[in-house]
User: What shape does this take?
Amino acid sequence: MHQSLCPTRSFVAMLRNPKIRRAVAALLSGADVGSEHHGPLKGAESVGLARSGDDGAPVLEEAFLADAAAALDRAVSPLAVLDGARIAVPDLPLDAVDGTVRAVAERVLSPGDRVSEATLNDRLALFVVDVAFFRRHACDLGVLAREADGSAYWRA
Assistant: This one.
């Protein structure tokens, strides 16, 4: 199941508020959350960090932390794009195609890398739907260079 980063982002945004930070600190510490913290923790309940206990006081929802960590791990891993949509040229505004191709090519090949077409295709496939278009267009733009026979590619 795809775990969205939205609750994690919302939680981090809430921490900008000093009252909410103090309330979250009390919640995370496991101490009794005093009634002064109930109001500030309503947002924590809405994102899933807390739930109302039997007495109505906010209680830490342990699963939130595990879910947030898993969502962040996926978002920062090299394969994070597999959790999201790959780039499709028809979905791009015409004036964004060149910049997108350039950005993807620079992301998949570091300066000094020299890779086979198969390796380049594998890397591009993590980000884009039409691998051949992105590979060829990156060469046309001068972002990538290649051997005449297409056996190797590198950043130009």
Observations:
- Strands lie at 50-52, 58-60, 114-115, 144-146, 153-155.
- The mean pLDDT is 86.
- Residues 6-75 form one domain.
- The chain is about 45% helix and 10% strand.
